[in-house]
Amino acid sequence: MEVEANALERINKTLSEIEHAYDRMNYELAYKLSNDIQDSDPTGCSLCYIGNLYRSGEYIEKNEDLSEKYFSRAFAKLQNHQDHGIVQHRLGWMYSTGVGGADTDPRRAFRLYKLSCNSGHANAQNNLAALYEEGRGIKKDEAEAARLYGLASNQGHGRAHFNLANMYYHGSGVEKDFNESIRLFELAASAGVAGAQFKLGYLCSTGTGGMTQDKKKAVEYYKQAVQKGHLNALYNLGILYSRGEGVEKDRNEASRLYKLAVAKGYSNAQYNLAVMYSKGNGVTQDKKEALRLYKLAADQGHIHALYNCGIMFLLGQITNKDLSESTRSFSVAAELGNSNAQHYLDLN
């Protein structure tokens, strides 16, 4: 029994290390540690973390089927170890998200998070706070959300830093305090939270939220977020490169960043890259590719892309003039408030 007790102690220590690595977004380490103990871990938590990684595509290739298989195996084990704080948190998360065969049950998730919070579990505090903030399964209570985020933040929880920073920024559940929000955003950014890195980049770029405008600093924050694939950071950094703000003007780099955002279906990047192809800025001029990208953005309701599609069809810049397609694009753009599109409709 002593050997089993020592083994369980080592597993619990490793699970804590996995949680810390995951919170710091060190997904490589989280995967390695989880993989090392998945067969010997009686709680199933390590299986849950691997399932998470397959679900998100962080570090390992995204695979929904494998993710669900790991979650199912984890769910079967987790239910037998509900006296463990980490288990209560992971099981609560599964009931909150409905993965691995768990029925989506915010109330049950709330109870499990609550139990885990009683043992001082920072992830559970953060997730329970989110339930209070959103009013999922319980009555919405932003003040309680802020209190719980604060408890997790005091333990160095990166996402809790970020969530609490947003509450101070907007004055939700706490008195608005830009200085405190920036302090927390910086803590979250240092912990590797891409959303915080993006937010600081935006505040530096625009000079809002109590930050002095500093485009160079914005570039650095955006670059940190881009390394983690943050979509808005890819787009905003592309804009700065295209304009030469805070960094030497480089339309080739701007187009590269836009292409990464386009691959994720971001309509603003589709539109900006289409403009570059239309004019031959940073890329070889290609009207056909420009129209393809305009169409992608237009399908998502991008008002300027709809208008530009209308112009290209009207002028027959790729194929013969297509007045029906032109009218269709102008009509949707006009409905969304584009006065120039309405002007062309009025002419007809």
Overview of the molecule:
The chain is an all-alpha fold and 348 residues long. Helix content is 71%, strand content 0%. The chain is built from 19 helices and no strands. The protein has helices at residues 2-23, 27-37, 45-56, 64-78, 85-97, 106-118, 122-134, 142-154, 158-170, 178-190, 194-206, 215-226, 231-243, 251-262, 267-279, 287-298, 303-315, 323-335, 339-347. The mean pLDDT is 92.
Furnish the topology, listing elements before pairings.
Blueprint: H1 2-23, H2 27-37, H3 45-56, H4 64-78, H5 85-97, H6 106-118, H7 122-134, H8 142-154, H9 158-170, H10 178-190, H11 194-206, H12 215-226, H13 231-243, H14 251-262, H15 267-279, H16 287-298, H17 303-315, H18 323-335, H19 339-347
